[in-house]
Specification:
By secondary structure, the chain is an alpha/beta fold. It has 17 helices and 16 strands. The protein folds into 2 domains: 408 residues, Glycosidases (TIM Barrel, Alpha-Beta Barrel), CATH 3.20.20.80; 54 residues, Oligo-1,6-glucosidase, domain 2 (Alpha-Beta Complex). The strands form 4 sheets. An 8-stranded parallel β-barrel has the order 1-2-3-7-8-9-10-14. Strands 4-6-5 form a 3-stranded antiparallel beta sheet, with no helix packed on it. It is globular. The protein binds beta-D-glucopyranose (BGC).
Length: 492
């Protein structure tokens, strides 16, 4: 067992998320233990040793609930189960136990804003008479004109936030795909249902939850229906519910917003413990390309301070497109021009690529951005496969190109599965520059100068100094614009 992880993450430390190194993975992409072509929970359990040896102290699992998988599991059909492709509840409990034995925390997904249209709540709602308690579980309207002007997030796929339901004979509201109806958080019954869901997973021993798409929970006429005071009020209730029942748990907000609004998800330390630093992410890429510290220092000047007990989650890439929603039009044009010249790499308002291909497979550029990830204020989140410089395949549609099987060896299916290659849920990467024959953990384990070993060393170094996880930051002025210099200091 890794000595550092034991020292930093103790079962009783309420601030564990501050010192954490989070690894984000999708069960179906990680390792297939029963060789049916789909990754499963037992596969992740089998690879805990790999994560531990990397220095990871918390694992964030993408949604694993029963789902038609039209949005890769963010379309939940039952909040209390496990998708049969991934295993059973007992497998999950065993995974939790094994992770905890290694001193690792487990973070899961709470998709509150919407469900799949296959969820029984939606089926009941669309069949229930207008004005009845079940109808009120979702947001219905007789016209598609309500909340006019609210932006469409999946703009490559949807033309309206309303869809007509022939069964209910009414329109239902959805901020994402039209198969993902938004729940009605004005309904106290819906709030209660969510508290029940949280209790269920927290009682089982989950340590933290990422609150998916959290800015869009409530709707109000005449607003953009994002970051409403009513949304923050509900989240405050949710936090106090959690604190009353459980110890040392963590809520992580996915709020892709401008700095002022993103910071509001911390409240006064009474809403979320963590939130993703969306404002920072694209600016790191901009600074690298421009060879200029300005975008980074400038965004830090705009991000208000956060409460003492709170912490940013910082990331370079994740399972979604590299979002360019919260940048100026000029900045977006620049990012597209330099990072997604090929239009096929663009989706909605973002770029569907992994870290290594974004950086033209340049080891030095990967190292520089990774150094920022591990040294700027906040808890670093590594996206699976980026620690070995995995490639992507944007021809696979939607965001599937960054969700392909993890590459373990140069063998069949990259060592992910021994199933017939035609059965694998997504094809492995065979782009010559990133082919799994050469890019895989087995090869990189053998070479101490590999990216994998480099990341491992950086993580170990980070853990030796609490200044990285808990300290303040002071930028030093450099005459040379290409040099970003800062001091991290903790208790002197
Ligand atoms: C998730 C996406 C998902 C969307 C809708 C997002 O914030 O990260 O992967 O498509 O929520 O659930």
């Amino acid at each position: 067992m890794n000595k550092n992880s034991k020292k930093l993450i103790t079962a009783d430390d309420p601030g564990w998320y501050k010192d954490a190194v989070i690894y984000q993975l999708h069960i179906r992409s990680f390792f297939d233990s029963n060789n049916n072509g789909i990754g499963d929970i037992n596969g992740v359990t089998a690879k805990l040793g790999y994560l531990e040896s990397l220095g990871v102290t918390a694992v964030w699992l993408l949604p694993f609930y029963p789902s038609p998988l039209k949005d890769d599991g963010y379309d939940i059909a039952d909040y209390y189960g496990i998708h049969p492709d991934y295993g059973t509840l007992n497998d999950f409990k065993r995974f939790l136990r094994e992770a905890h034995l290694r001193g690792m925390k487990v973070i899961t997904e709470l998709v509150l804003n919407h469900t799949s249209d296959r969820h029984e709540w939606f089926q009941k709602s669309r069949n229930a008479p207008k004005g009845s308690p079940w109808r009120d579980y979702y947001v219905w309207s007789d016209t598609p004109d309500k909340y006019n002007g609210v932006r469409i997030i999946f703009q490559d796929f949807e033309t309206s936030n309303w869809s007509w339901d022939p069964v209910a004979k009414a329109y239902f509201w959805h901020r994402f795909y039209s198969h993902q109806p938004d729940l009605n958080f004005d309904n106290p019954q819906v709030r209660k249902e969510m508290f029940k869901v949280i209790d269920y997973w927290m009682e089982m021993g989950v340590d933290g939850m990422r609150l998916d798409a959290v800015p869009y929970l409530l709707e109000r006429d005449g607003t953009n229906c994002e970051n409403l005071p009513e949304t923050y009020d509900f989240l405050r209730q949710l936090r106090s519910h959690l604190d009353k029942k459980f110890k040392n748990r963590m809520l992580l907000a996915e709020a892709n917003q401008w700095p002022e609004d993103a910071v509001a998800y911390f409240g006064k330390g009474d809403i979320c413990h963590m939130a993703f630093n969306f404002p920072l992410m694209p600016r790191m890429f901009m600074a690298l390309q421009m060879e200029d510290w300005f975008p980074i220092v400038d965004i830090y000047e705009q991000i208000p301070p956060i409460p003492e007990e709170c912490q940013w989650a910082i990331f370079l890439r994740n399972h979604d497109e590299l979002t360019l929603e919260m940048v100026t039009d000029e900045e977006r044009d620049y990012m597209y021009k330099v990072y997604a010249h090929d239009h096929t790499a663009r989706i909605n308002l973002g770029i569907r690529r992994r870290l290594a291909p974004l950086l033209n497979n340049s080891r030095r550029r990967i190292e520089i951005l990774s150094l920022l990830l591990f040294s700027l204020p906040g808890t670093p989140v590594i996206y699976y496969g980026d620690e070995i410089g995995m490639g992507d395949n944007y021809y696979l549609g939607d965001r599937n190109g960054v969700r392909t099987p993890m590459q373990w060896t140069g063998d069949r299916n990259a060592g992910f599965s021994t199933a017939n290659p035609q059965k694998i849920f997504l094809p492995v990467i065979i782009d010559p520059d990133y082919h799994y024959h050469s890019i895989n953990t087995e090869n990189q384990e053998k070479s101490l100068s590999s990216l994998l070993w480099w990341i491992r060393r950086i993580i170990a170094m980070r853990k030796q100094h609490k200044a990285f996880s808990r300290g303040g930051i002071k930028f030093l002025h450099c005459e040379n614009q290409a040099v970003l210099a800062f001091v991290r200091r903790f208790r002197g």
